[in-house]
Structures are given as C-alpha cells and as structure tokens.
Amino acid sequence: MQINKIMSYTFDKEDLKQIDAIKAKYPTVQSATMPVLWYAQDKFGHVNAEVQHLVATTLDIPESHVHGVATFYTQYYKKEMGKYVLDVCTCFSCQVCGGYDMLHYIEDKLGIKAGETTPDGKFSIQEAECLGACGYAPMLQVTNDVYVNHLTKEKIDSMIDGLKEDKLPEYEEILPPQLISKD
Amino acid sequence: MAIDFQNYKTLIIPQGGNLRDIKAYEKQGGYKALKTVFDARESAWTRENVINEVKTAGLRGRGGAGFNTGLKWSFMPKPDGGKRYLAANGDESEPGTFKDRVIFEFNPHLFIEGAIIGAYSIQADAVYVYIRGEYRSWIRFMEQAVADAYKAGYLGKNILGSGINIDMYVHSGAGAYICGEESSLMESLEGKRGYPRVKPPFPAQRGLWGRPTTINNIESLANVPLILNMGAAKYAEMGAKTHPGPVLYGISGHVNRPGVYEFPTGMLITDLIYNVAGGIRNGKKLKALVPGGSSTPILRADQIEGVSMDADSLRTAGSMMGTAGMSILDEDTDMVDFLYRISHFYHHESCGQCTPCREGTGWLEKILKKIKNGDGEMRDLDLLLDLTTQMEGRTVCALADAAAWPVRHTITRFRDEFEARCRKSVFAIA
Ligand SMILES: Cc1cc2nc3c(=O)[nH]c(=O)nc-3n(C[C@H](O)[C@H](O)[C@H](O)COP(=O)(O)O)c2cc1C
Ligand code: SF4
Ligand code: FES
User: Which ipTM did the prediction report?
Assistant: First the structure.
C-alpha cells in the first residue's frame, strides 16, 4: 500500500508563477524542460507518465519530448519511489574504500536489494555512480539531496533511525585540509 | 626545480576561511580584477588584451583536455549583433573528481568574477553555469552567490556603470555523466537529451541555441582573476612551464589524508601521496595510481618515480593529467574488480548514439564480468585489447576513448593479475 498517494497532479497558481520565472532564464521554452521536471519532482516526489503529461501541457511542448528527457536522466524518478532514496556510491574510489560493504549492510538492514523499495514505502536503495565525493568515501546521498560521507555501520544505523522519524541527516561541511589551521 | 609546497600559499582555496559571503570575498581583494578590467576597458584592458593576458599566462583548461583557455576565447567569431554565450562546466562527473565543488562551497565568487571577465572578453550576453544535479547542496550555494553578485552590481544591466550587461544562470543537471562533454552539455541546457553533437561546427561557430558559445570548466574560470591580479608573467612561472598555475588536486583512495589540495602544477606524485596526503593507509604499500579521473591510464607504483602532475611529465610516463582527481590504490587492490567497476560506469553512461561506444562499452563490461567471476579465458584478454582499438577515435565524442583507455592500460600494465584469473584458452594435446 502506498501512503500519501497524490490523487491528481496539478500545478497551482504559485507553481505557475515559479515556472514562469524558470522560463525567463532561457531563450526557448524547451530549455525549461529540465528545471520544470525538477520542480515537479520536488512537488510530487516523482515524474511518472502523468506528471510528464502535466509538464508537457504546462510548457506547451510535445509530451514525447518531455518523456525523452525524463528517461534520459537518472535522477528523475519515473515511478514512485520510497520516501527516502538512498543512493550508495560504489564507483571507483568508493569501491576500494568499502562502498560495497556499506551497500550490502544497508540492503541487509532494510531487507531489500538495490533497486527495490521497502513494503512500507519508506526507503528505496540504489547503487550510484561517482557522486563527486571520492575523498570522503564511502558515502551516500539521500533523495537527490544531502550527502552523508565517511560511512560506517554505526553512522548508517543512526541515519536510518533518524529517517524513520523523518529526521534528515545534516549537511556536513568538509573543509579542505589546507583550510584547517594547524594549531 | 622542486616546488616549495610546504610554504605554498593557496589562491583558489581561500586563505582565512570560507569566502562564500560576498563581503568576506571583497574584503580579501575580491572583484578587484573585475573592477580594474572594467575601469580600463578602453585602454589597458580591452577585450583583446584580456584574452592575450590569459593566453600568455598559459592557463590550460582544468576540465580534462588541458586546452589553452585564452586561445579558446580567441576562437569566438566577430559579433553579428546576435546573442553569444559562455557555458561554465560544473558537471564534474568523471569518477575521482571532486574539486569544482570546493569552489562552489568555499570560494564561489572567485569563479563568478572569472566568468564575468571571461564573458566580457568574448562578448557573451549570458553565462550558464551547468552543475551536476547531484550537487544540490552546492547548487544552493551557487544560487545564493549569484544572487549576491547581482545585488552588488557585478551582474545584470550596466555592470559597475560600464554599460555592459551580463546575466548568469545556474542550471541543474539530472544525473548523466555525458553532460560534462561540452556539446552534450549544450543539448542539455537546451532542454534535450544529452546527445553529443557532431563537430564541426564547433561551439564557437554554432553553440547554445545555435549561437557562438565558449565552454570552460569552473576551475579554469576561477583562475582568471588570479592571472589578472598577479600578471600573466608571474602566473606563467608557477609550477610546470608548459602547464602552469595552481591546481586543485582531488586525492582519494587508500591514503591517510584524502581531500582536495591546492598546489602548483608539476607536483611530484610521490610528494602528493606521501608528504601531502599522509601516505598509504594502514602501513600498506602503494600499488597503483589513476592520476586524473577514471579515464586516465593507470600507473604502476614503479612507473611514478620522478613523475610530476603536468601534461608533459604524465604523457612521458604513459598517462594524462585529466582532472587531477587522483585515486590511489594499495597493494591489496584487486585490479580485475577495479577495472570491471570502471567499465560498468562507462557502459552505464554511454549515451548510445554511436555503435562502437554503445556496443563496445557493453562488451567490455560483459567480458570483464566473466573474467571477474572466474569464467574468463586467456584469449578474452586479447579480445578486450582488440575491442579498445576498435572503439577509439570512431565516435561522436570522446566517451568511447575514455572507456577504452583504462581497459587497455590496466590489462597491459597488470597483465599477470588478469591472466591469473583466466583459464587457458589452448590445451596441450596429450
Ligand atoms: C565524456 C566526457 C565528459 C566530460 N566531463 C567533463 C566535466 O564533467 N567537467 C568538465 O569541465 N569537462 C568535462 N569534459 C570536457 C569538456 O568537454 C570540455 O572540454 C571542458 O569543459 C572545457 O573546459 P576547459 O577547457 O576549461 O577544461 C568532458 C569530456 C568528455 C568527452
Ligand atoms: S561516443 Fe558514446 S557517449 Fe559519445 S556520442 Fe557516441 S555513444 Fe554517445
Ligand atoms: S567514487 Fe564515490 S563519490 Fe566518487
């Protein structure tokens, strides 16, 4: 069963104002496709076929175009996902620093595999390509937003406990070593 | 000449804390270069002079290809009254690369200042800053910084009373490595799937929305105010002669102190690993190094003695500078697993337009998976090498090459490890 299922997808007046502001950044309407898909995903949690239809009619561009764009980019969720999507990096530098151990630990903990969603709709797990945090490996990203770096099993435990109560992990500022004073 | 890196004073990574606050940046001399240029735009700092200064400084692009930035600017055609664009490439998706985000987070105005000077020089009306979608936190930092720069009068209409108008917009990607390739980036900005374009025409002729466009990496543009502040001559003396200036080295993998470090080009690899990043973790020995992102050919520990981080030295050693995102591997690293994971990445990220790339990256991954699982045969290794030859130089963009290089070089440089995982292909007849 899905919780918080949105029955109809519409943009309200405020949304349309925001979308006009997005359109103003580009010389063509088509260029607004990506940012408006982002806007829609932030609002609805995903951009399934119905949302793609809404974006296309709102921008007055072909639905096939919007669909083509939505399916090209991995961060757009084409179907409903868990409330929290854990993108665990297993690429390259994370791989050699224990990325797979962390992925498997999360899989065991939540009882699902990468690419799946827990039955209560709370968590999805994905295996991610390099997220640009290689020096802070292993790491993961929560629902296209905050990065959690230097993962350990303990850190994962407390992060998941927090998310169960809808407490998002905090942004971690990582200073370049040369900015850390030596005294 | 060895670099006195212990006493090096950073220029891109700010001295004295975070400079995201525009006031803090201005207090440290920020936007001085822009003011100087705009004040003297009819005398010392005409557009041609700025371009020449950047050209003689010898700044080479930090996005991977290492092309002279000033020279690239000079390719823009004469204005015809229509729009012109600068696209700043912050896609930063090459595995091992995590340095532009340091600029977004700690010194965004250095980049913004450089981009405004760049836009002025090539007579661009607008700068589009393309940032990978995963960097949402850093996109927020940039959006704030751009808003602050507008408020302070460095962006928008009639900048600093000069009559020059330049706009800047931040555009979020959505998870596609290929969008870091410059023509794919432009397709993406135009709201399409990120399929690289056939060149020519080059972006300077037909770029964004069919108009003249220059694409520069974020770090490349952040170097521009430094060049103008210290002068091209002094800049050209920093680091390696043919590849000068400061560089953000992103160090990851099996070292004690990973992170992004700023030093001049031409740093000895051994200094970076042992003296800067604290050596190999857990007292292990170094096995190999990927010097500049996953596409750059891997070097064995015995190949790095005396090699420095600049285009010439790395070419002689058999690799490339790339993005200076260095991944360091210790003696326990399984090279077959490592290479398999790289090949998985490139297969996943191929846009699928060209047959040699779409099919080739798939076969590379498939064969390597077979070897990794112990089902490979000796002749698969030559098949892999043969495949890399068939992929290189035959595609619309360089992703196919980027996928082929690591396979070719990892197999030739660690052949014994690959052979040890393979069954014999030929059996003696009793
Ligand atoms: C597959 C592929 C991916 C690339 N990814 C990036 C990237 O993420 N960031 C970047 O600055 N350049 C990337 N480049 C290089 C760009 O095409 C372009 O050369 C560069 O942005 C130019 O800036 P520069 O001259 O300042 O280095 C990539 C190239 C290829 C072929
Ligand atoms: S080389 Fe690969 S990524 Fe580049 S255009 Fe061809 S198929 Fe796409
Ligand atoms: S390899 Fe995981 S963040 Fe780069």
Answer: 0.96
